[in-house]
Each structure stands twice: as C-alpha cells, then as structure tokens.
Specification:
The protein is mainly alpha-helical. The chain has 2 domains: 78 residues, RNA polymerase sigma factor, region 2, helix turn helix motif (Rna Polymerase Sigma Factor, Chain: A); 94 residues, Arc Repressor Mutant, subunit A, CATH 1.10.10. The protein contains 10 helices and no strands. Helix 2 runs parallel beside helix 4 and helix 3 packs across helix 4. The longest helix has 25 residues. The radius of gyration is 19 Å and the shape is elongated.
C-alpha cells in the first residue's frame, strides 16, 4: 500500500467512520429492511471512498454521506421495495419530541393524541406520507439537518424543502387527527 493510499485511508476513516450508525439508521428508514440497509451503507461507503478526493475535508461529512446514500437508494433500491415503510418506537418518539419542541400552541388534544400513540397506528401514519415528504420530515425532524443541508443532499431548492416539510407535517397531523377521532379523543 502506497504512502498516499494509507493517508487517504486514514483521512477517510477519520471523516467517515463516525457516521456509520447514522447512515445505517437512515438506510433502515428508507428500506425498512436491515439487510437492504447494510447493502445500501456498503454501497455508500464504496462510492464515498471512490470519490473521497472530491470531498472537501472539514465540511459536513454526514450530509455528504447522506446525499450519496439517498442517491444510491433512488438509483438502486426504490424499484425493489415491496414492503410498507416501518418505523420503530425510538424513531417515532424522537420525531415527536422534535416536532413538539418546535410547537408553541400545545393543546390538550395534542397531549391526548400523543400520550399513548407510540404504536402501529402512528407508524402507519408516518408510512402513509409520500416518500418525498417522509424523507424531508425524517431528515429535518429526526436527524436534525438544516434546510440547506437537506437541499444539498437531495439536490432540491430550499423553498421546495420548506414546502415538503410543511406539507409532510400537515399530512402527518391530519392522519393523527383522524386516528384520534376514531379513538374518541375529540368531540367532533
């Protein structure tokens, strides 16, 4: 192994390895299958290493990796998806806490809706979001990326990101409200 190759390998490890868990979790949310997520992460790492010379050291490696992963998913995996999206309890809980932190008009209804709602019905509500909306909601509200980072990852204008996030949150809110009505949490 040449000296330059060793240096590249070390720099790659320093910049990229800390983000493997986040990559896997994002891949799992996109594919809803652990094996597919591992394949997607491996594909991402191979591409990241191949194009590491084009990466600007010291910039946001996580956002760069997420963009590669998302592009790999679009190119290789979307057509193979057969199962509905699955969401685990920790993800839903984290998602809810992020949404709730941004809200100022918390109501008793909202408290009732979310008190015992971390179940399959909430997962189904999130899964019903169209992929573009779900992806932006997950990247922003679960993974904490900024609008600019998401825009760069998805190669979509910031205005479109804001629009998808707003629409995705509203669709999720509508789904949860319908669920709350069915469960008798509202007076309607």
């Amino acid at each position: 192994m040449s000296k330059n190759h060793k240096k590249k390998q070390q720099e790659f490890n320093d910049e990229i390895i800390p983000h493997l868990d986040s990559l896997y979790n994002f891949g799992l949310r996109l594919t809803s299958d652990p094996s597919d997520s591992e394949d997607l992460v491996q594909d991402t790492i191979v591409k990241a290493f191949r194009f590491f010379d084009s990466y600007e050291k010291g910039t946001n490696a996580k956002a760069w990796l997420f963009r590669i992963l998302k592009n790999s998913f679009i190119n290789n995996y979307r057509k193979n998806l057969k199962k509905p999206q699955q969401v685990d309890y920790d993800e839903v809980s984290s998602f809810y806490e992020n949404i709730r932190a941004e809200r100022t008009d918390t109501s008793d209804l909202e408290h009732l809706i979310f008190r015992d709602l971390m179940d399959d019905n909430f997962s189904k509500a999130l899964a019903k979001l169209p992929e573009d909306f779900r992806t932006v909601v997950l990247l922003c509200d679960v993974d904490g990326f900024t609008y600019e980072e998401i825009s760069n990852m998805l190669d979509v204008p910031i205005g479109t990101i804001r629009s998808r996030l707003h629409r995705g949150r509203n669709l999720l809110k509508t789904e949860l409200y319908e669920y709350a009505k069915k469960r008798g949490y509202t007076d309607d």
